[in-house]
UniProtKB/TrEMBL annotation:
The chain crosses the membrane at residues 24-43, 55-76. Gene3D superfamilies: FAD/NAD(P)-binding domain. The lineage of its organism: Eukaryota, Metazoa, Chordata, Craniata, Vertebrata. Keywords: Membrane, Transmembrane, Transmembrane helix. This is Uncharacterized protein.
Length: 167
């Protein structure tokens, strides 16, 4: 008896015991790796969600012309806006009565289509891939899209509000 093994232990028992220990170690390693990855994923997803929640901002747009309303639509569609306010000194009737024409080139049309503008439901006409309409019609259409977004974002359009600079 050498003190390390029982007398009746054979050579096969040493290999079997080592194999069991190796399997147990491999199992423990795999399990601890799986737990570590799961914890990492849960923490990362939670932090990313928290960052996105905190990243929501309030936006103020002064001017409800075609550019201002398009910017408002882009902001709302981004998903990062908590509150959107559009101010303009003109009243809604003054916007609708604007007789000037606007011509949207093909790049602008593609951009606006991605924002949800449906040119088939807007008064205007097509000529050589350009869309022509009155500015008032275009503004009214964008205002109607913004009003539909009120369910997801706090949208306030305050027409007839004069903004004065403070020095």
């Amino acid at each position: 008896m050498n003190g390390l093994q029982p007398e009746n232990a054979g050579v096969g028992d040493i290999g079997g015991n080592a194999e069991e220990r190796f399997r147990a170690l491999a199992y423990d390693t795999a399990l601890s790796t799986l737990v570590a990855v799961a914890v990492y994923v849960v923490v990362k997803v939670s932090l990313d969600g928290f960052r996105q929640w905190r990243a929501r901002i309030s936006v103020l747009i002064v001017g409800s012309g075609p550019v201002g309303l398009t910017a408002a639509l882009v902001a709302v569609r981004s998903g990062k806006v908590l509150k959107l306010t559009v101010l303009d000194e003109r009243h809604r009737n003054a916007l609708l009565c604007r007789p000037q024409q606007i011509a949207l080139d093909p790049r602008s049309v593609k951009f606006l289509l991605r924002l949800g503008v449906d040119f088939d439901n807007m008064e205007g006409c097509w000529h050589n891939e350009h869309f022509f309409t009155r500015i008032g019609v275009f503004q009214e259409y964008l205002l109607s899209i913004l009003e539909q977004k009120k369910l997801k974002v706090d949208v306030k359009v305050q027409l007839g509000t004069k903004v004065e600079p403070s020095y």
